[in-house]
TrEMBL record:
Residues 12-22 have a biased composition (Basic and acidic residues). Gene3D superfamilies: Potassium Channel Kv1.1, Chain A (3.30.710.10). This is Nuclear pore protein-like protein. It comes from the Eukaryota. Residues 1-25 are annotated as: Disordered. It holds the Pfam family BTB. Residues 33-113 form the BTB domain.
Length: 374
């Protein structure tokens, strides 16, 4: 008589799928809870299940109140004939939602006094979705104390936007404006630090539109583009004015205005030296001052442009035919010093938040009870 046949085991992949589909033990937020939330199936193979008090959720969130008691498919009235009241929230991230539930159920021992920027970002996403920003008011000051030191600009910017931190939002938006450059594909990018090391960092360019997807106001990327263009224009403005003056019939040299032809030629020579040195110096740093639209053709960052323009060695005639050109050199130096001061003032005036940004963040700040110290 032969050996009895032993059943073969299920394939590993199929077994894993079956295991993932099995109900998991709920995380109990309220022992007498009347509602199970199945959270985050889009983020993992199976959802995390929470046993909660539906009335606590309804008191804490107007969105959840409508969902649970407003006649929606998830509401109590729609679930009356079922043995268990279960609501699926597949797109919420389980760990941040768990923290939100602890806060809602007043399980304050489970709420950390310190939190990573990424965890705070995920929590803020959930808070915004369920209109529950005010719930984190007791922890906001400690959680946000060092936010301005962050180099995770998109995440920090979004947190500032949702929590109404106007100064912090302005800071991070300005950082991105200053770091933005036009890449080879004609899109705005910036360099994100990946692995901080000393003395050098490993960095790679990031598409700004990708990094700011669903971050901050809907028009944020366009706003950063417009501000960058404005700042580039401000940096170029005095140098384009100088360039156009040097190629005009009037020029910069004082001898250009004299009636004697000989002196006029001396003035042209002086201006030609200034013009030639300016064009040459610009070309050495890949700035085309002669372009039809130098602002549009410039692709690097605003600070790099300001530094390169400020370091241009623009010359003037030393002496020619016993004529003194020191006023030309002094005049150029004074012009550029005044231009630098004007650039700084105009830059500060340009980097202001849109009124609609300010209004929205003031409303968010009122929910949180944080005034604009951050």
């Amino acid at each position: 008589m032969g050996d009895s046949e032993t059943p073969t085991s299920e394939p590993a992949a199929k077994r894993q799928k079956l295991e993932d589909s099995q109900p998991k033990t709920p995380i109990i937020l309220e022992e007498l809870g009347d509602l199970q939330l199945r959270v985050g199936s889009d983020h993992a193979g199976h959802p995390t299940i929470f046993l909660v008090c539906s009335k606590t959720l309804a008191r804490s969130s107007p969105v959840l109140k409508k969902m649970l008691y407003g006649g929606f498919a998830e509401s109590l009235s729609a679930q009356e004939k079922k043995e268990d009241w279960v609501v699926d929230l597949p797109d919420d991230e389980p760990s941040s939602f768990k923290l939100l539930l602890h806060i809602m159920h007043r399980n304050f021992s489970q709420v950390p006094q310190e939190i990573s920027l990424e965890s705070l970002f995920q929590l803020v996403v959930v808070l915004d979705k369920y209109d529950s920003i005010a719930l984190i008011r007791p922890w906001a000051s400690s959680w946000l104390r060092d936010i301005k030191d962050s180099t995770e600009y998109p995440m920090a910017l979004h947190i500032a936007w949702e929590l109404g931190l106007e100064n912090a939002f302005h800071h991070f938006m300005t950082v991105l404006v200053q770091k933005a450059f036009v890449d080879e594909e004609g899109e705005l990018s910036y360099y994100e630090r990946l692995l901080p090391r000393w003395p050098e960092d490993i960095i790679k360019p990031q598409k700004l539109a990708h990094c700011l997807d669903n971050v901050g106001p809907a028009d944020l990327c366009d706003t950063i583009y417009e501000l960058r263009q404005r700042l580039v224009s401000i940096e170029f403005e005095p140098y384009l004015k100088l360039y156009k003056s040097l190629i005009s019939e009037y020029g910069q040299c004082r001898y250009r205005s004299k009636k004697r032809e000989h002196l006029q030629k001396v003035g042209v020579r002086c201006d030609s030296i200034a013009l030639g040195s300016m064009i040459r110096e610009c070309s050495l740093v890949d700035i085309d001052i002669t372009a039809k639209d130098p602002v549009e053709s410039f692709h690097e960052t605003v600070p790099s442009l300001g530094l390169d323009l400020s370091q241009l060695q623009i010359l003037a005639e030393e002496s020619y035919d016993k004529l003194d050109h020191s006023p030309c050199r002094i005049g150029l130096d004074d012009y550029r010093k005044k231009a630098r001061a004007d650039i700084e003032q105009k830059t500060q005036e340009a980097l202001v938040l849109k009124p609609q940004y300010q209004a929205r963040m003031k409303a968010q700040a009122m929910k949180l009870g944080i005034h604009n110290a951050l």
